[in-house]
Write a structure and sequence with these properties.
With 264 residues, the chain is an alpha/beta fold. It folds into two domains: 192 residues, Vaccinia Virus protein VP39 (Rossmann fold); 63 residues, Helicase, Ruva Protein, domain 3 (Orthogonal Bundle), CATH 1.10.8. It contains eleven helices and nine strands. The protein has a seven-stranded mixed beta sheet. The chain has a two-stranded antiparallel ribbon with strand order 1-8. Helix 5 links the parallel strand 5 and strand 6. Helix 2 crosses helix 3, helix 7 runs antiparallel to helix 8 and helix 8 crosses helix 11. The longest helix is centred in the last third of the chain and has 16 residues. The N and C termini lie far apart (61 Å).
């Protein structure tokens, strides 16, 4: 594209564009798009993935923070029915302006590495509206999201993701596929919400229990939590309290979080 040659990916926006058509087609195949689908795309860049999404779905609202990309995207998709471009930060975008109720929106995006956590938090806030998310992420971050108690990458983020989503790493992507190439490899990841609606109280209590435990992840669970709960209450959970936090599964953390409710 002639227009693309005039544009330089901006470091401040964490832009690393994908131009490889074979990879792009593989990614869109992995998303498994149906014609009825309504998409929100985070950071369309020059619109390469956008074009494949809109060709297969009912609509795609692309949210792009970089105003310099707006003329290119408007020109590229000006005659495409179902395409809408919003020039703003995704973190300030109200998804309810385009949603059609609960579980009506699919999300996709090649995310800037430095905003992966805030965008995931934004997605969690909108989880009741979302069918699923397909994100290109830094590989290390992706492995943390998909980690379990048997993996080295397991931590607080892993538990939160497992509580909320079915997380699947669909494809590892070498850094050479990006313009400019980042310093690390990436992974294409699917997040599919496990629940129709989020139990906000349970989720808040889960995070309350995770914070002290993973802040002292080398200590045994019992030693950390005895400052918060009685030994009798802890033993009532049936959990092996001599384990470290990174040896417990999500269900164990949920059981421990219920002690917060029971103890006010």
């Amino acid at each position: 594209m002639k227009e693309f040659k005039k544009l330089s990916p901006k470091k401040k926006f964490g832009q690393n564009f994908i131009e490889d058509q074979v990879l792009l087609n593989e990614l869109v195949d992995l998303i498994e798009i149906e014609k009825k689908d309504i998409f929100v795309e985070i950071g369309p860049g020059t619109g390469n993935l956008t074009e494949l999404i809109i060709n297969r779905s009912t609509s795609c609202t692309s949210v792009e923070i970089d105003r310099n990309l707006v003329p290119l995207l408007e020109k590229r998709f000006k005659n495409i029915k179902g395409f809408k471009l919003i020039n703003r930060d995704i973190l300030s975008f109200n998804i309810n302006t385009i949603s059609e109720g609960e579980k009506s929106i699919r999300i996709a995006g090649n995310l800037p590495y430095n905003l992966s956590s805030p965008i995931l938090e934004w997605s969690i806030k909108n989880i009741n509206t979302i069918i699923d998310m397909h994100f290109m992420l830094q590989k290390e971050f992706a492995e943390r999201c998909a980690g379990n108690e048997n993996s080295k990458s397991y931590g607080k983020l892993s538990v939160i993701c497992d509580y909320l989503f079915e997380v699947s790493i669909l494809k590892d992507v070498d850094k050479s596929f990006f313009i400019p190439p980042p310093k690390v490899d990436s992974a294409f990841v699917r997040f599919k919400p496990k629940r129709k609606t989020l139990n906000e109280i349970e989720f808040v209590n889960l995070k309350k229990i995770l914070n002290p435990l993973f802040n002292a992840k080398r200590k045994k669970v019992k030693k950390t939590l005895l400052s918060l709960f009685s030994e009798k209450d802890l033993e009532s959970t049936g959990i092996n309290l001599n384990l470290r936090p990174d040896e417990l599964n999500t269900e164990s953390f949920i059981k421990l979080s219920k002690l917060i409710k029971n103890n006010g």
